[in-house]
C-alpha cells in the first residue's frame, strides 16, 4: 500500500484537484494528521519524481514549494505560538538555500525547544485557511500582471488636442478683454478641480513651448497667465 506521501505527490502532479481539494482528499479521506506530514520526506519524493521525469515545470515546482512552506509555517506557529515572529518564519520557509535543501535534506527537521515546547494538533480547517490565504495573494499578483496596458499614444494625442484647445481659448480671451494678463480663475470660473487641472497642465506645456508666461506670487495662490509678445 502506498504511503500518504506517494499519494500526495501523485495528486499534485495529476492536477486533477485544486489545492483545497487535494488537502481534503489526503487529510480527511485518508485520515492523515497534518502534524504527522514529513516535509523532508515529501520533498525528497518530489525531487526523485522530477529527476526521473527529466524535465522541470516551474509552475508545478512553485506551487509545491509554496505548500511545503506553509506547512512548515503552520507547524512552527503551533509549536512555538508566541516565540517566533512571522518574518522569521517566512525567512525560514522561503529563504532557504536550494543547494542546502538538495544536498542535506536530513538536516531539514523541526526540533522542539527544551522546556518551552508548546504545541497542539493542526486542524484541517486551519490548514485550508492558511493555504487559501497564500493562494489568494498569488492570485492577486497574477491579476495585477494581467492589467491592460495603457494606450500611451492615445493619451498623448488627447493631451496635445487639449493643449491646442486651451491655447486657442487663451488667445481668444486676450483679444476679448484687451489685456495682457488673465488669471486661471477667469479661465476656469467653475472652480471645478478637474477643470482646473485639465487647464493648468496644458498651460504649463504652453509655457514650456514659449507661447505664454506663467507666474504665481504666493504659494497656492492665484496663477497669472501673461501673453507673450512676439
Topology overview:
Layout: H1 4-14, H2 19-29, H3 39-53, H4 58-79, H5 86-94, H6 98-103, H7 124-145, H8 152-177, E1 181-183, H9 184-187, H10 193-208, E2 212-216, E3 223-227
Antiparallel strand pairs: 1-3, 2-3
Helix pairs in contact: 1-2, 1-3, 2-7, 4-5, 4-7, 8-10
Low-confidence stretches: 82-119
Q: Strand order, main sheet: write it out.
A: 1-3-2
Can you tell me the number of structural domains? Answer: 2
Shape: rod-shaped
Distance between the termini: 94 Å
Helix content: 55-70%
Average pLDDT works out at 67
Kindly list the characteristics that best describe this protein:
230 residues; mainly alpha; Arc Repressor Mutant, subunit A; 2 domains; 3-stranded antiparallel beta sheet; 6% strand; rod-shaped
Would you give an account of this structure?
62% of the residues lie in helices and 6% in strands. By secondary structure, it is mostly helical. It folds into 2 domains: 142 residues; 76 residues, Structural maintenance of chromosome 1. Chain E (Arc Repressor Mutant, subunit A), CATH 1.10.10.580. It has a 3-stranded antiparallel β-sheet with strand order 1-3-2. A hairpin with a 6-residue loop joins strand 2 and strand 3. Helix 1 crosses helix 3. The longest helix is centred in the last third of the chain and has 26 residues. About 17% of the residues have low confidence.
Amino acid at each position: 500500500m502506498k504511503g500518504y506521501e506517494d499519494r500526495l505527490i501523485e495528486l499534485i502532479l495529476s492536477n486533477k484537484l485544486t489545492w483545497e481539494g487535494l488537502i481534503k482528499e489526503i487529510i480527511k479521506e485518508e485520515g492523515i494528521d497534518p502534524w504527522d506530514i514529513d516535509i523532508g520526506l515529501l520533498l525528497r519524493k518530489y525531487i526523485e519524481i522530477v529527476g526521473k521525469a527529466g524535465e522541470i515545470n516551474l509552475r508545478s515546482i512553485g506551487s509545491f514549494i509554496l505548500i511545503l512552506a506553509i506547512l512548515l509555517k503552520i507547524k512552527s506557529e503551533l509549536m512555538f505560538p508566541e516565540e517566533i515572529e512571522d518574518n522569521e518564519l517566512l525567512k525560514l520557509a522561503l529563504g532557504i538555500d536550494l543547494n542546502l535543501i538538495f544536498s542535506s535534506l536530513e538536516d531539514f527537521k523541526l526540533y522542539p525547544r527544551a522546556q518551552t515546547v508548546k504545541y497542539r494538533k493542526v486542524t484541517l480547517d486551519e490548514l485550508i485557511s492558511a493555504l487559501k490565504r497564500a493562494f489568494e495573494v498569488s492570485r492577486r499578483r497574477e491579476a495585477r500582471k494581467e492589467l491592460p496596458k495603457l494606450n500611451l499614444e492615445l493619451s498623448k494625442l488627447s493631451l496635445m488636442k487639449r493643449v491646442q484647445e486651451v491655447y486657442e481659448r487663451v488667445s481668444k480671451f486676450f483679444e476679448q478683454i484687451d489685456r495682457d494678463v488673465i488669471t486661471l480663475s477667469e479661465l476656469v470660473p467653475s472652480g471645478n478641480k478637474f477643470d482646473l487641472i485639465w487647464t493648468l497642465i496644458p498651460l504649463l506645456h504652453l509655457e514650456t513651448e514659449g507661447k505664454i508666461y506663467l507666474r504665481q506670487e504666493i504659494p497656492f495662490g492665484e496663477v497669472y497667465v501673461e501673453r507673450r509678445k512676439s
